[in-house]
Amino acid sequence: MNICAAQIHPAKGEIAENIGRHKRLIDLALQNGAELIVFPELSITGYEPDLAADLVTDPSDPRLDVFQAISDSTGAVLAMGLPTGSPDGIRISMVIFQPDHPRLTYSKQHLHEDEFPYFVRGEGQVFLTCNDHILAPAICYESLLPEHAEAAGRKGADVYLAAVAKPVKGVEKAYRHYPQIARKYGMTVLMSNCIGPCDNFTAAGGSAIWLPDGSLAGQLDTQTEGIILLNTKTLEVAEDYI
After folding, report:
1. The pTM is what?
2. What one-character-per-residue DSSP string does 216-229 give?
3. In terms of Cα–Cα distance, which of 131, 147, 202, 143 is closest to 173?
4. What is the pLDDT along the chain (242 residues), one digit of tens a residue?
5. How many structural domains compose the chain?
6. Which one, 123, 152, 189, 192, has least CB within 10 Å?
7. Which residue range(s) make up the domain with 103?
């Protein structure tokens, strides 16, 4: 299976513009044979907690129909981030588009303390089954908590999909942590990070994929939109930039 991390530079709060940026990266990924494409945390709006109340939407938002159409026509699975509403408040969510299936939503279960004023926790873990792989989504902070990966491993996940929005120090921490969980649970780990200004920091890119033995399969740079793709059978890696 060809799994892909898409590294995007979101425009702050500009949903329409960001949809266009997603489409360009999806086109690039599909040209490289991607079957599953994962975007960073809150990629549709940018990671902007202060704006979440104005940008909150839901998975059925008709502006997202273009992604369902792409999934249906190509067979690719697409995962991207946006703030979604719930009875308790706003959640940091990943909406997953699968061909000819209803949209699936995973919401971040473990929030960083800085996020408490803006967001509420999601409930329950979502798993995807694709091409004999069990894939577990994780969103930024929680992907660095050992208990999150452990729970995914116990359920048989062999691919861990970390959608993040991280500055340099966060990326450095991720590069230490993800190889450990890859080895411990025998999982391929994919990290999709964004680039450019986010909230009160600058996202540092470095989107990457680690093999189940903990070795780094490949990584993107710190400042360019692009994609990194791994064939989970042959372990071949492809990188391409906008």
Report:
1. 0.98
2. EEEE--SS--EEEE
3. 143
4. 999 999 999 999 999 999 999 999 999 999 999 999 999 999 999 999 999 999 999 999 999 999 999 999 999 999 999 999 999 999 999 999 999 999 999 999 999 999 999 999 999 999 999 999 999 999 999 999 999 999 999 999 999 999 999 999 999 999 999 999 999 999 999 999 999 999 999 999 999 999 999 999 999 999 999 999 999 999 999 999 99
5. 1
6. 123
7. 2-241
